[in-house]
Amino acid sequence: MGGVSVGLRGSGLDGTVTARWRRRLAGTNPEEKRHWRTKTAYYAAVSRLLAAGTPQLGWSEVALAVEPRGSRSTFYEVTGAHAKHPLINDLIVDDNLDALQLALYYRRSCAIDQLIDETKVWTYWPHRECLSLRCRIEDLDASASVDLLLSTVAEWARRNAGVASALDYAPPLCAVEDLLVIRPGQFSAVHAVGTLTRTVREALCG
């Protein structure tokens, strides 16, 4: 079957801004790995709070939910205007029009919202790894690859309803980037965000 992008078969999914950001922080540098462990503790706390239906999140609610412990100082190391290694900064400095458009969409004025966006990426990542594996071993054309991506996002949303519905059903940034890789030139960044937002909303609301 023809038509699948070279990027999808090769390094495309591995070369997105989000993939490079995650690989760097979760990689081999001891200092960055420590920071990644702190980040993931906060992501897990946010995921639990949203799953429990916590009506309004602030830094104190999140810090109290962090295991083994959180604090105001580590909260603002993880998210906010002065955070260390926020994903949004990697988008802003990337020399790519799609990345710039996504940065404009995902740039948040609220530290909690920025943290939720990264939590969406963190909770989606295991689903993305399965998607990436299938794309590498199956002979999918571009249309089938898009269908697989949409079904993967929908499954993530159903399994993580609290996180998925937050921020008006905004999709995980990495899923938007993947859609742009799968169909290069066929989606604008805005169109890709809209398509996946509808996918998340329909998965949760019917």
Describe this protein with a few key phrases:
mainly alpha, disordered N terminus, 12 helices
Topology (elements, then pairings):
Blueprint (H helix, E strand, L loop, with lengths): L5 H4 L7 H9 L4 H22 L7 H7 L6 H7 L8 H7 L3 H10 L4 H27 L4 H18 L1 H9 L3 H10 L6 H17 L1
Helix pairs in contact: 3-8, 3-10, 4-5, 6-7, 8-9, 8-10, 9-10, 9-11, 9-12, 10-12, 11-12
Describe this protein's structure.
By secondary structure, this protein is mostly helical. The protein has one domain (6-205). The protein has twelve helices and no strands. It has helices spanning 6-9, 17-25, 30-51, 59-65, 72-78, 87-93, 97-106, 111-137, 142-159, 161-169, 173-182, 189-205. α4 packs across α5 (72-78) and α9 (142-159) packs across α10. The longest helix is centred in the middle third of the chain and has 27 residues, at 111-137. It starts with 5 loop residues before the first helix and ends with a helix. Mean pLDDT is 91; it is low at 1-10.
